[in-house]
Specification:
The structure holds 2 protein chains of 2 kinds.
Chain A: H1 10-13, E1 50-54, E2 66-70, H2 76-100, H3 116-139, E3 144-147, H4 162-182, H5 184-198, H6 205-224, H7 235-246
Antiparallel strand pairs in A: 1-2, 2-3
Helix pairs in contact in A: 2-3, 4-5, 5-6
Chain B: H1 2-34, H2 40-47, H3 56-73, H4 75-81, H5 90-101, H6 105-138, H7 143-159, H8 165-178, E1 182-183, E2 190-191, H9 197-200, H10 205-223, H11 244-249, H12 251-264, H13 272-286, H14 299-322, H15 328-339, H16 348-351, H17 353-376, H18 378-383, H19 389-408, H20 411-429, H21 435-458, H22 464-467, H23 469-505
Antiparallel strand pairs in B: 1-2
Classes of the chains: A mainly alpha, B mainly alpha.
């Protein structure tokens, strides 16, 4: 339900609230938390295993630190999957760095020029990405210590189904695209109906919500907020304008 | 006294519309706190397109009402259902829900409502009485000082990020780079347009905000099959305000929570979530009832809630006096100023006194309305949870579309919003924080403008940042923040190594 808005809370909550480095995709397959079993081993099955417990007065560790050790086995394929986005971004940042040198300076030539700030940002991005790649290599096959905090239970999120996420993304893109051809009104009715239906609500109210939602938002945004919404092309434009007239909209 | 007179006049001239907007804003703010998948930043973003036809003062008052009430709305689900409505509600959930399980839900809700009221009013007093003297001081600031403040804000975002430092930096620099697209306002050069009008006009940061907050959340929730904790309807929803003697015994918690929230918000980029967690930490460390915390203590509710609501005023002080947003929600408010061709900053107090009075009055009335509505409307708000989440999410996508489209009545902004919405999904799943991206996109152009202005004024003399006293002090604080960041990383690595060695030794 809650996702952090502007800043996160770990620093505020103290060291015990600091989580371990982010786990790469596919790194953790099995996890079990045995709270209160100080130093007790837990799962040993599978390529990645988790052990959990509480520290017991080691130097530099609070006595009541609850933590788990996530052992990882990263295959070359996992590593490649992790590195591809970072390497792609480095290439893009390097290209943008180069392009920044070509910006035309309309002002005095001895000033820093319009390319300075983008170059600074691109260089910073490249350096940060290189550091991240080094981290990926260093973290490979190295166990991760995940320290638990008293607020961990609120951080648990539902498992993401990438197929459904891709479907939602496709719907969002199709919606924007369709407004250019079908117009806002028709596209919105279709989008609401399909999104809600695919989202699991399959009842007789869905068409009502879809059509009603499209009509009401059209009326509000055109009639009250004075936004000029796309009406579509060809026959869709004709139909949309006819509905506008029925709604008393200009 | 002038401030009070101005506020009375603002309310009188605003009439019923003024009150109506506050009530609407408070209701929306509380609703987004209650409804799954929505945060108050999303609430402020979603109401943005409805404000385009309004006067600046009306739009700002409406959004401030959403913002303030959004810091409180989430307590209902936190206390009654153990589901934090907002990130800033997490620390109070432990004690709040424990009280609820002990049959003390009404008492817990009463403490939360009172804490929000006290935090809001103290924050409002700070806003009214601190912002004008601060603005007089800020008039002395030059571009070097502004650049140093922005640098401090960016550093603060990194220091408070829970993701790895490298990922936070990547997100920040990516945001700064994205913000350079379009025509540069100092040199007039076209940057990264790749021959397209879409990019030549620049990327409006509000489109990025709508994308990475509203659309990303909607797509993710759809991908998660709207799973997670199932919100059950609680048996009874009632609020009981504490008596005077009970309040007296918890006075310290009110003071610590409110002062922590107000002080924390003095750091640019530090939002109400950090304020709430720090206040909880302070209470646990120094509170008179510190041993009770976590077992159903009102102090565990009072401190974080008072801090959350007091924090809003701090963000407004930054925004009004310096023109620098301190959080996601105040960045949207900055967008409203810009859409109305108003530049917030120290001069605004002299140039737009009516607008400032309306904002002051709007904040106070929003806090009072939030308190009343929090007590009276808790039951109907909780009933809204019966609505399947997919309906809400579908309309969030719709309003995200509208929020981006109405910026310039252009489908280009919708495409930009959609692109960032999709990017946000991958970033969240890859463990890349979104806040540095957003604040990089917002503060980056401001930083560039002040940096270049300083360079032009001084003929390229870099030392000016260190020779001007205030700039030097701010840069020193920035350096100290970096040092703290490095120290924290080293300390955590050592701790992890020690824990690992202990585990190995234990077999």
């Amino acid at each position: 339900m809650a996702r952090d808005d502007d800043t996160s809370r770990s620093a505020a909550a103290g060291d015990a609230d600091r989580s371990a480095p982010d786990e790469p995709a596919g790194a953790v397959t099995a996890r079990r938390r045995d709270e209160g079993q100080s130093g007790a081993a837990a799962s040993e099955d599978g390529p990645d295993a988790t052990k959990s417990g509480a520290a017991s007065g080691e130097p530099g560790t609070p006595d009541d630190t609850e933590f788990e050790v996530i052992e990882r086995r990263s295959s070359p394929r996992d590593l490649a999957a992790e590195l591809i986005p970072e390497l792609g971004l480095i290439a893009l940042a390097a290209y943008l760095f180069y392009l920044a040198g070509t910006f035309q300076n309309q002002a005095e030539q001895d000033l820093l020029g319009p390319g300075f700030w983008p170059r600074l940002a691109a260089a910073g991005l490249i350096v940060a990405l290189v550091v991240r790649i080094v981290q990926i290599f260093r973290e490979r096959n190295r166990p991760i210590v995940k320290v638990h905090s008293e607020f961990d239970e609120f951080e648990e999120t539902a498992e993401l189904d990438w197929g459904r996420t891709a479907l939602a993304m496709a719907l969002a893109v199709a919606y924007v695209l369709s407004t250019m051809f079908l117009g806002y009104l028709i596209s919105t009715a279709l989008f609401l109906g399909v999104f809600i239906w695919l989202g699991g609500q399959r009842n007789r109210y869905v068409p009502l919500v879809a059509i009603g939602g499209a009509l009401i938002t059209t009326y509000v945004f055109i009639g009250i907020v004075f936004v000029s919404l796309p009406t579509g092309v060809g026959v869709f434009d004709t139909v949309t304008v006819a509905i506008y007239r029925l709604l008393g909209l200009q | 006294m002038d401030a009070i007179t101005g506020m009375v006049q603002a309310v009188a001239s605003g009439g019923f519309v003024f009150f109506g907007l506050i009530l609407l804003g408070v209701f929306v703010g509380m609703l987004v706190g209650v409804l799954p998948g929505l945060t108050f930043v999303i609430g402020v973003l979603l109401i943005l397109p409805f404000t385009y036809a309004m006067e600046a003062s009306q739009a700002l008052v409406l959004m401030i009402a959403v913002y303030v009430a959004g810091t409180y709305g989430g307590v209902l689900t936190s206390i009654l259902l153990n589901i934090p409505g907002e990130p800033n509600d997490v620390p109070l959930t432990k004690d709040g829900y424990t009280m609820s399980r002990q049959g003390r839900a009404a008492e817990a809700l009463g403490w939360a409502a009172l804490a929000a009221l006290v935090g809001g009013i103290v924050g409002w007093i700070a806003l009214v009485f601190v912002s004008q003297p601060f603005a007089a001081l800020a008039l002395q600031f030059g571009s070097a000082e502004y650049f140093a403040i922005i640098l401090l804000g960016l550093t603060g975002v990194l220091a408070l990020s829970e993701s790895s430092t490298a990922k936070s930096f990547i997100s920040l620099f990516a945001g700064m780079l994205v913000a350079t697209v379009g025509i540069d306002d100092i040199y007039g050069a076209v940057r990264y347009d790749f021959g397209t009008d879409l990019l030549r006009d620049g990327i409006n940061y509000l489109a990025i905000l709508v994308g990475v907050y509203a659309l990303t959340e909607s797509l993710t929730r759809f991908g998660e099959r709207f799973g997670g904790k199932v919100a059950q309807q609680p048996g009874e929803v009632r609020t009981t305000l504490p008596g005077l003697s009970a309040i007296r015994s918890r006075a310290g918690s009110f003071v610590r929570g409110t002062s922590t929230g107000a002080l924390i918000s003095a750091g640019p980029g530090v939002g109400s979530t950090v304020g709430a967690f720090v206040a909880y930490g302070v209470e646990k460390q120094f509170g008179r009832h510190k041993l009770e915390l976590g077992t159903g203590s009102p102090s565990g509710i009072i401190a974080p809630q008072a801090a959350s609501t007091a924090n809003v005023s701090g963000a407004l002080i930054h925004l009004l006096v310096l023109g620098i947003p301190g959080s996601g929600a105040s960045a949207v408010l900055l967008g409203v100023f810009q859409l109305n061709n108003i530049s917030p900053g120290p001069q605004i107090f002299g140039q737009q006194p009516e607008l400032i009075s309306a904002i002051f009055a709007g904040l106070l009335l929003s806090v009072l309305a939030m308190f009343v509505m929090g007590i009276l409307a808790a039951r109907p708000l909780i009933r809204m949870l019966a609505l399947p989440e997919v309906y809400i999410t579908a309309f969030v996508v719709l309003f995200a579309y509208m929020g981006a489209f109405a910026l310039r009545q252009s489908i280009s902004d919708v495409w930009i919003m959609t692109a960032f919405g999709l990017l946000g999904v991958f970033m969240v799943r890859g463990g890349y924080p979104l806040a540095p991206l957003v604040l990089g996109a917002i503060l980056g152009p401001l930083g560039e403008r002040y940096f270049n202005t300083t360079m032009i004024r001084t003929g390229g003399d870099w030392t000016v940042f260190f020779t001007r006293p205030l700039s030097a002090v701010l840069l020193a604080i920035t350096a100290a923040t970096f040092a703290l960041l490095a120290y924290r990383t080293v300390k955590e690595n050592r701790r992890d190594r020690a824990l690992l060695e202990q585990r190995i030794a234990a077999g």
